[in-house]
Every structure is written in structure tokens, then in C-alpha cells.
């Protein structure tokens, strides 16, 4: 947490060796956070997503939602506007500050919590109907024990019939067939590029280039779809449905992103 206020990213002498969960604090520095919304393009992303997440939550009668990876606040704001009771959490203080400012500009007030997923229930109290963990955020966890611990914390924070919605890039496609992206749904900024500089079974290092010539990087763990689904099952989720770029049917290599909807409730 001591690097939160620094301006430049720090990956050490060999960036490809930086494979630690806590390193995201050195990645989401203020200068990168200030440019994040250029990457997303809120209006374009809202149009591309439509009401996908809102429809899933409403169809299951969910009202109290924890946005566990708030980032700059896009999904928290969309859910608040749709009438949900939202708690907005993030492990990075710079992101939470920006999210609060973004909501305030839209005449909304976020209920925020600074929380590490691995100890989520220490900092975020109460039970939720649903938890969303979006924006490829889960891939910041490099250690399998961290991933299992975080999912167990999510599971514990949900009501008995709660659901977890978690997304990830299609790393299977990148690892098996190389990188390609349509940027149709997630990273919609038309003047920004987000592409991998390196990918192996243990690291996907992405470079984000902006119109002013600035560049930033993120080191992430390349989660395979089947592995993520197994982790969700292992922690206790009973039914998992995976969408490809918000579609129920898809060719495995086509989607940029997978969205997993995991239900805690038992189904006969």
C-alpha cells in the first residue's frame, strides 16, 4: 500500500519476472488511473454491454450488490442508475477515489469500501444478493491460494442463494492461437490500444498505449476458462454458466471475454 501515491509504474529490472498478486498496487498509479476511462469509453461500453448484467440480476430477483472490482466506477454507476443497492469495493485507493468522482459528476454517491478480496469480509460487512467482479480483475491474483481464498471470501459474503458474476479475458485463445481482439465490448476507446507484449502459461503482460504517447503496463495471470470454472466449483458454487462476449452460444476462440455466472443455490 506504500506505493499508492507514486506517479510511475515500477516493474523492476525484469518486468517478466514480476508475478505477484500485490504488485497491482504499483501498476494502478495515479497517472494510469486518470487515463483509464479513455480506455473504457463509458458511453461506448454502455452501448456494447446493453443491459446484460442488469438483466441477469433482475431475472434472479437480486437487489443488494457488491461491486468487488469497482475500478473507476462504471458498473457501480450503471447499477445505481438501474435502482440497485450497491456497495463499491476496490483494493486500490486511487481507483476508488476516481470512481467516487465519476459518480459525483453524475449526481450519484457511491458507498465505497477499500478492501482486499483475500480478507474481504473483514472490511465489507453484511450479506449480498450478488457480487460482481468484472474488468478482467480476477487475473491480478497470481497465486492459486490467493484465488481460492478470494473466491471463498466472495462465497461467504453471499446470501444462501446469492450469485457471483466474474469475467476474464479469453486467455485460452491467446495461449493456443495468439492474440486478436475486436475491442467490441470491453475496451472501447478508439484511440487507445491494449495488446499483450508477452504471454506464457504464467504471465500475460499487456501494454496500454494512449494518444498522447504515454504507455502503461499490467502483468496478469492468464486464467484458462476451464480452470476458472473448476475453482468456482471447488469453492462451492453449484451451477456455473459461461457466456462469450455476452452471448450464450459462441465458438471458443471468438470471444474477447468470458463471463461466468456462478450460483450458490443448490439445483435439483
How would you summarize what this structure contains?
With 268 residues, the protein is of the alpha/beta class. It has helices spanning 24-27, 30-33, 36-40, 42-49, 52-59, 74-81, 93-105, 120-123, 144-157, 171-177, 225-235; strands spanning 64-67, 85-90, 111-114, 128-133, 158-169, 193-200, 203-209, 215-220, 239-244, 257-263.
Describe what this molecule looks like in 3D.
The chain is of the alpha/beta class. Helices cover 32% and strands 25% of the residues. The protein has eleven helices and ten strands. It has a seven-stranded mixed beta sheet with strand order 3-2-1-4-5-10-9, sandwiched between helices. Strands 6-7-8 form a three-stranded antiparallel beta sheet, covered by helices on one side. The longest helix has 14 residues, at 144-157. The mean pLDDT is 90.
| Low-confidence regions | none
- What is the straight-line distance between the termini? 45 Å
Q: In percent, how much strand structure appears in the residues?
A: 15-25%
Query: Which bin fits the share of residues in helices?
Result: 25-40%
Question: In sequence order, what are the helices and strands, one letter per element?
Answer: HHHHHEHEHEHEHEHEEEHEE
Strand adjacency order, main sheet: 3-2-1-4-5-10-9
Keywords summarizing the entry:
3-stranded antiparallel β-sheet, 7-stranded mixed β-sheet, 11 helices, 268 residues, 10 strands
Topology diagram in text:
Elements: H1 24-27, H2 30-33, H3 36-40, H4 42-49, H5 52-59, E1 64-67, H6 74-81, E2 85-90, H7 93-105, E3 111-114, H8 120-123, E4 128-133, H9 144-157, E5 158-169, H10 171-177, E6 193-200, E7 203-209, E8 215-220, H11 225-235, E9 239-244, E10 257-263
Amino acid at each position: 500500500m506504500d506505493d499508492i501515491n507514486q506517479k510511475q509504474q515500477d516493474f523492476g529490472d525484469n518486468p517478466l519476472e514480476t508475478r505477484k498478486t500485490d504488485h497491482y498496487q504499483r501498476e494502478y498509479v495515479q497517472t494510469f488511473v486518470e487515463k483509464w476511462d479513455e480506455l473504457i469509453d463509458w458511453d461506448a461500453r454502455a452501448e456494447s454491454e446493453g443491459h446484460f448484467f442488469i438483466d441477469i440480476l433482475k431475472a434472479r430477483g437480486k437487489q443488494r450488490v457488491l461491486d468487488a472490482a469497482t475500478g473507476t466506477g462504471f458498473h457501480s454507476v450503471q447499477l445505481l442508475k438501474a435502482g440497485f443497492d450497491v456497495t463499491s469495493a476496490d483494493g486500490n485507493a486511487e481507483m476508488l477515489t476516481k470512481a467516487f468522482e465519476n459518480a459525483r459528476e453524475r449526481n450519484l454517491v457511491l458507498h465505497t469500501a477499500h478492501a482486499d478480496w483475500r480478507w474481504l469480509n473483514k472490511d465489507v460487512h453484511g450479506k449480498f444478493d450478488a457480487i460482481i467482479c468484472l474488468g478482467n480483475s480476477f487475473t491480478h491474483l497470481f497465486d492459486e491460494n490467493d484465488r481460492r481464498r478470494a473466491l471463498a471470501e466472495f462465497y461467504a459474503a453471499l446470501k444462501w442463494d446469492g450469485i457471483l458474476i466474474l469475467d476474464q479475458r479469453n486467455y485460452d485463445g491467446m495461449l493456443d492461437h495468439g492474440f486478436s481482439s475486436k475491442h467490441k465490448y470491453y475496451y472501447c476507446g478508439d484511440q487507445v490500444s491494449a495488446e499483450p507484449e508477452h504471454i506464457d502459461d504464467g504471465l500475460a503482460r499487456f501494454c496500454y498505449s494512449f494518444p498522447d504517447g504515454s504507455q502503461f503496463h499490467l502483468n496478469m495471470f492468464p486464467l484458462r476458462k476451464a480452470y476458472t470454472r473448476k475453482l468456482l466449483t471447488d469453492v462451492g458454487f453449484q451451477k456455473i454458466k459461461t457466456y462469450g462476449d455476452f452471448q450464450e452460444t459462441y465458438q471458443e476462440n471468438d470471444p474477447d471475454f468470458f463471463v461466468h455466472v456462478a450460483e450458490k443455490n443448490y439445483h435439483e
